[in-house]
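Encode chain A's predicted structure.
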Amino acid sequence: MLLRHLVALSLITASTTALADSFDINLRDTSAQLQYSAALGSSTLGKNEMHLGYLYTSNKNSYADFGILVKDEVSPNAPGLTVGLGIKGVLTKVNANHSTALALGGQVRYSAPAVPRIGFVGTAYWSPNIMTFGDADRTVETGARIEYEVIPQATAYIGYRKINVGLKNAGEAKLEEGAHIGVRLTF
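Encoded structure for chain A:
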């Protein structure tokens, strides 16, 4: 009897978590990025999200990240404006240099109440020298995109991303920069 209750509780828990998961892929001629996001618990103070991603470029550079983002609407007086703050671990390989970092940053998203299916998103993450290890002394990631919700479970977007890595002995190295197109599927 106890086993039956545990199995039922596990299935209910798994099904509620699966509803908040998303898979994101974005592409350009010289790179591809895959990302997976999942909700973390339930909180009345915001929407907690865990993410895991990997970017690969045609010149064999790579950027892996994993982190947590806490986001919520700013206030009832600013409908459609969501702000998030987060922390993530970053693993980079650029021009045969390897580094790890702990980056702080966040995102801002605005969707006008009159057209809620269209959204504008900006992101920025920064890791200073004290939190960057290996062949680098800092990482900076910035991005912006315009999203369109095709259906509630699928969003298409066009974006621009720039990732720079400050190498200790070689100066600033551009890991990735340019426009991309992408799709985010929520299940």
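The longest strand covers residues 136-151.
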